[in-house]
Amino acid sequence: MKPITTSVTLAGDCTDGYKAIDQKARYYAFAFVELAYKQGWIYDGYKTSSFNHQKAMEDFVLNGLRGKDKIASHIEASYWYNECENYGYFNDYKTIAKKDFKDIRHWHMPTAYENGEVVTSEANARAEALMNACTATIMINKTSTNGEADVLKVCKDFLRFLSTEQELKNFTACTGAAKALYDYSIDDSVLQNLDPYQQSIMSMRANTTQNPIVNQYGNNNVARYQSDYVTYSASCSGYKVDTTGFATDASAYPSILEAYYTTDGKANYLNAYKCFQYTGFDAENWMTKVYNNAFAN
Question: In angstroms, how far is the first alpha carbon of the chain from the final one?
Answer without folding.
Answer: 41
